[in-house]
Design goal:
The complex is a heterodimer of chains A (about 240) and B (about 300).
Chain A (H helix, E strand, L loop, with lengths): L1 E10 L2 E11 L4 E5 L6 H9 L6 E6 L2 E2 L5 H7 L1 E4 L11 H8 L5 H14 L1 H5 L10 H13 L5 E5 L7 H16 L4 E5 L2 H7 L2 E6 L2 E7 H6 L1 H8 L14
Parallel strand pairs in A: 3-8, 3-9, 6-7, 7-8
Antiparallel strand pairs in A: 1-2, 1-4, 4-5, 9-10
Chain B lengths: L1 H31 L8 H16 L4 H22 L9 H23 L4 E2 L9 E4 L2 E4 H23 L1 H11 L1 H6 L4 H27 L1 E2 L5 H14 L4 H21 L8 H15 L14
Antiparallel strand pairs in B: 1-4, 2-3
Helix pairs in contact in B: 1-5, 1-6, 1-8, 1-9, 1-10, 2-3, 2-8, 3-8, 5-6, 5-8, 6-8, 9-10, 10-11
The chains are: A alpha/beta (about 240), B mainly alpha (about 300).
Chain lengths: ~240, ~300
Amino acid sequence: MLDISGLTTRYGAISALRRVSLSVGANEVVGLIGPNGAGKTTLLNTVAGLLRPAEGEVSLDGRPVTGYSPDRMLRAGLALVPEHRRLFAQMTVVENLRIGGVTSAADERSERLDEMVELFPVLKDKWATAAGYLSGGEAQQLAIARALMSSPRIVLMDEPSLGLAPVLVDFVFDLIGRLRTEGRTMLVVEQNATRLLEVADRAYVLRTGEIAAEGPAADLLAREDLFDTFVGVSDRSDSPDPEQA
Amino acid sequence: MIDLLQSLIDGLGRGSIYALLALGIAVIFGVMHMVNFAHGELITVGAYVAFAVVVTAGWAWWAAAPLIFVAAVGTSVAIEFVAFRWVRGSSDFTMLLTSFAVHFLVQAIFVMTMGASVRSFPRPDWADRVWSVGDLNIQVIDVVVIGATAATMAVTVYLLQRTMFGISLRAAAEDFDAARLMGVRSNKVIRQAFILAGALAGIAAIFFLMRTGQARPTTGLSPLLKGILAAIIGGLGNMQGAVYGGLLLGVSEVLLRSWLPEDLVGITDGVVFALIALFFIFRPQGLLNVRSAERV
């Protein structure tokens, strides 16, 4: 499905990503964990087309998509739920959803709106509310629903539990689990490594812009050394990251 | 009371033109984060088109008006394609300088081809007619301008609120990269923004030229400055605020003209600017906030 090979992204002279290679298979949930500043968000932004890679290749279903603009990447079938959600705060919930389906025909968009209401019933009650007035949990649901409006073949999620209260963190990971059951393909970046590994099929550990470890999520979850060395001891605990609570 | 009502009608007539221009400026600012100093050139181009077809070709105003509109839209799209597309993504400063460059370049082209002198053309007969309602004397053109502006705003609101074009434009204005992530094409949405801004300027140009009946290389400068000022008053980038800003500016100008002693009327613009500066000391964000805070 998604293949990333030797991807390098630079901010000026600084390489935020160095020859990163990873893959996400169809109907697979792949986690990407690592400490702050490891390059996780840079990787997603590069794949989604917000940043231009200095080297390397990205392909989707075997088709090269390296350097595609974000709108072209979406049309190719890849949607990003960005860090901090980046909802259109002044627009209503339904408008945010409609913009998520901007690439679809009107009748198709209408069908997807119905699907999203079914998947995220809370949004129906807030239909005409400006997104800026949603609670954290509602906003996160809207961000995910908005990405799903384009019926992407793969969804990239950047820190979906960031800034949420513990009860909402549970909800978000349950949701990822539900989407996995539905057979959605996802690449998820999270600081909350334990929770992510519990719902992912496989995972990669990114450290200072390089892949430091990879493997089945269950195996990585069992590796004490991995958390101590690469991710950080606090992420091993079941409680959410203090910054996110 | 009658004087106040009279000033209000006159002010709304004047402010309607500012509102149309300010809305166009706000639309462009929204998607490009640039104050477009070339926006006034759409009126200048319209003025020479009016001169050409009304004087040279002898067309009636009803036939000239659509051509002025098309010329403004065409010029707006051409300016985006020729100048702004190539500096998109550059610093705000570069884009601002580009808009200045276009402004002065268009002026220079008209000076070289048409000369610096004023070219006058006949205004529509009905423009100077006055309806007397009790003690009120209402200029027909004020009624037409206010009505046409209200209709234009209604259509614009419909487009912005109800169509995918409008939703895409508003999304791009709020967060351009996030809009691109949703599949909004940057070239398309920016071109559409320039078409909308050109259309609004085209309507403003028709009524502005019906009032002035003059074309010169700097025709668009004064309305441009008023439009920018109105957009700033409204909270730069806020489309609704831009409209309110334009109307407020028009009414303030007319009220000041009626209140100031006759020998001080010449400093009306200066007083308006001073009042606006004072307004910004107390409300630096303008009439309306550009963004509301996102709750987490």
